[in-house]
Amino acid sequence: MNPAALATGHLTAALELPPGLDTGPAVTAANRLPGGWHLFAPGPENRDCPVVEVTYADAEPKVTVDGQTIRMSLTCGAARSATLAYTTYTALERARQERQILTLHANAAVTPSGRGVLLLGNKGAGKTSVTLALGERGWTHAGDDLTVLAEHEDELLILPGKETAAVRPQDPELWQAPKPIVDLAPFLRVPVPLAGVIRLTVHPAIPRPQLVPATPFSANEQLRLHEALARYISGLPTPLTGPTGAPYGPVWPLDDLPLARWRTHLITRLEQHPYTYLYAPDPQTAADLITGEYL
């Protein structure tokens, strides 16, 4: 095995790779992960870090856990592709949550006064479009699709998330074209306190824009948050098989009861912040509502 040190997702870990593995394709995915994906020579300071061991799969790819060591067997195609970056990032979600840091499928933006707002929503709900519209109003980007939430003492914080976004072309005739990847700027560089959470629904059929308080949480909202907060530690967004063929993979065995209890506690903390549902016919209207709420 070839030892290295890996920095990704606001963590440093020891990484052991098969000899001769070309990590170039993984490095190209760095700007699509919170905190990047950077390899460097290991030193004494990495001895007590979590460890990710990567081997080639003889049969089915799998993940096992042994204390602070995560062992992943990947197909050769997956290990030699950008999938290596995504899988090693996900393998470290256990260590993140042990440090009260969590990866969340959400967008985030920071007000001109330095307060962070989480934007939740299903795929296609308008998170990216609304975030870009907030940027036009002087907000700072803090993550597209991948946002990092942390608890520090008596505060919830937003940490820098994914710095790029896939933006749908404005020309309706290009609706099937691949979305170009754009760098988000200006982008958050330091943690900021969480001011509030908005769950978005943006659709032209919505007749009247409105913000509706969502606290106290309904049972449905609690269930949605439980699923969202556990998504990355379950490995659900990160199949093990790589870019060829049908992607698949088991639920990863990274979770444990103390971490599940902490996530439940995190839901209680979120309920103590302003938390609203937003309905708007277009991203510009949504951004105007959010700006009026937080400025």
TrEMBL record:
Protein name as catalogued: HPr kinase
Superkingdom, natural source: Bacteria
InterPro entries on file: P-loop_NTPase (IPR027417)
Organism: Streptomyces umbrinus
